[in-house]
Amino acid sequence: MNGAAQELLRVEFSNLRHQREEMIAVLGMIQRFSQLVPAKTSLQEICNHLVRILIELTDFERSSISLWDDKGGFLRLVSSFGFEGLLEDSGDPVYRWSESHAFNDKVTRRVFDTRDALFVEDMRRDPVPVKADAVILPVSLVCLPLLDVGVLLLSAGQPRQFSSQTRRNWMLVSDIIGHLILGTSLNDRLNAANHSLAVEVDRKTRALEEKTRAMEAANTFLEQVLDHTPQGICILDNEGKIDRINAVMERLLGKPVGEIRRRSAGIFFEDPERCKELLEKARKGQRIRLNDVVLVNAAGCRYPTDIFLSPIEGDDSDRCGYLLMVEDITEKKTFADQLMRTEKLAALGTMAGGVAHDFNNILMTILGNTQLLVQHLGSGDPEIGRRLQHIEQAVNDGAHIVRRLQKFTEKDRDPNAEENLCDVSDAIKDVVELTRPRWKNAAEKNGAKIEVRLETQPRCRAAVHRSDLREILTNLVFNAIDAMPDGGELVLSSRTEGDWVVIEVADSGVGMDEEVQKRIFDPFYTTKGVGNSGLGLSVCWSLVKRYGGDLVVRSHPRRGTTFVIRLPGAGEAETACGIQSGSSRKIGGYRLLVVDDEKEILDLLGDMLRLMGHKVTAAHDPGEALSILERDHFDLVLTDLGMPVISGWDIARKSKERLPQIPVVLVTGWGAQYEDEDLTGRGIDLVVSKPLSYQKLMGALEKFL
Hints:
The protein has about 700 residues and is of the alpha+beta class.
C-alpha cells in the first residue's frame, strides 16, 4: 500500500471518528433532551434548559431560541445562553450574556418562513446581515427552523466547517427540539385549558348558587340606575298606562308614583290628545323623538322638554309596554338664550370694527379743528373757550369708546396702566356739565325741574380710565333723568371705603320692581320701548367689572333708584383728569410729507404741522406721493393706512427704499389693531391712532425730530 492510499485511509478513519464523536454528541443531547420530558416544566423553562444543554455539549459559544408570536406576527426571543454563563469568574468573555444576538431579524425570519436551515462557516467570507447597533459579531453561524414553532440560533467566535453529515445531525436535533417545544406548548395549552375549564366550572357553580340573590340585586340596581338617570323615565304598560317612574319623573310631575300608577300617560302632557297620537305611532313600532314639547306638572306649571317614546318587546317579540323618557330643557333653553345674547354682542363687535375707521376720521376732523380754534382764539371769549374744551373732551371720550369697541374681543385692561387713574370728583363735575342740556334745558322745556346735588369727597381717585368713568356716569345720569319725567332730585356722591371708591347715582323717580331689577343689566333689555338699544346699563356693568369693581342697584317702585359703583381706589395724589388745550410750542422747521386720501384730514394735518413751524408737502393721491418721494427729500413721512390702490404699507416701503433712515409714522383709524405690534420690518417706525390731537401729534414728532 503506497503512501497516498495510506493517507486516504487515515483521512477516512479520521472522518469516521469525527462522525462517531458527532453522533455521540447528538445522542448525548438527545439523552439530555429526553430527561426534560417527564419533568413537566413550562415552555419557558424547557427553552432555558435546551439552550444551556446546547452550550454544555457543543463547542458553540452562544445559543438562543425565538418562537413565533401569533398575536404579534413576529419571532420573539424567549431564551438565550452563552458560554460565559458556565463560568462564574470568566472576566470579560468574548460573548457577554447581557448582549442580544446581533443578526438582522430578516435572517431568522427567512429561515422560519422557508424552513431551510442556514449554515455560515465564516462570516468574513460569506457575510450575513447584522443589526446596525450590534456590539458583538460572531464568525460562524447555524440558524435552524424548529418545525413551525420558531428558530434555533447557534454562533461561535471562530470559523468552522459543516459537513453534510454534520448538517443532517443538526437538522435532526432541530426536529427533536421542535417536537419537544411543540409538545410542551401543547401541554401548556392543555394545562391552561384545564385550569380555565376548572375555573369556569367553579364560576358557573357559584353563579348558579347566587342566581336568586343576583336577580334581586339586579332589580335593586336597576331601580337605582333609573333613579340616578338625569332624564325622567316612565315605564308604560301595553295600554299606555303608568306602571313605574323614576325619581326624576316623580320630581318633574310633583306627585309620588303611588298616586299616578295605572293612570294614563296623558297626565304629563299639556294636550292629552297629543299623548294618544304618540302612543298610536308607537303601537305601530315607531320610535319617536320630539324636541321642545311642553309638559305640565301637578301644580299646573308648564315646562319645556325633549321626549323619547319607544315600544318595549318581550322575549317572544311581542310588545309588552312602552318606554317614555323626558328631559327637562329649561336650563338648556336658558343657556341657548345666553348664547344668542353672546352672539348678538359678537355681532355688535364686528359691526363696531367696521365703522370705527370712518368714525375716527370724523372725530379727527372735529378734534383738529377744535384745537386749531383754541390756538387762534387764544385768551379771547372765556365762554367760547369753555365750550370748545367741552367739545374737545367729548371727542376724546368718543375716541376712547371707539378704541374700546375696536378691542371688543381683547382681554381686560391692565389695571396698573398709567391712564387708568382718575379723580372721581372731577369726573362727576365733567359729567354734570356735559349732561346739562338734558337734565336742565330739555327738562325745563317740558315743564319739569330736576335738582342736581353733588356730595363728592375731594382728592378721591379710582383705578379707572377717566373716559370710561364718564361714560358710566353719563349713562346712569341719563337713566335717572328718564326715570323723572315730572322732575325730581338727582344726587351724585363719592367717598372712599378702605381700598375702594364708592360712587352713588340716586334719583327720586318712578323706581323699579324686583323683576326689572333682575334683568336691568342684561344686553338689549329695555323698559323704554322701541328706539332704545337696551345696551346702556349692560355696557356700564361690563366696564365696571373690567376694572375689578361692582355695580348694583337698589330700587323700589315710586320711591326712586340708586346705582352704587364700587371701584378699586388709587390713592389721593393729584391727577391730570382735565382737558389740556393745544400748545403753540414749535419744535422746528423740518420738511414733512403727509399722505391721506381724506381731503379734510389731509388739510387738517397740514395746518397743525405748519402751526408747529414745519414745511409740509401734502399728497391727496398715494400715486402722486410715490412720485414726490422719487424727486424730493424729507425729514419724516406721515401716511394713512387704508387708501385705494396704494396703501400706507407701499408708502412706507418706498420711503425706506429711497432713504432707509427716514422715520415713517402711520396715522390710521385702525391704530388700535397695530399700535402694540412691532412694524419696523414693514417700514413703520410709529403707529398713532385717529383722532389725533395737536399734543399727540407733537409728541409723535418729538420722538424723531
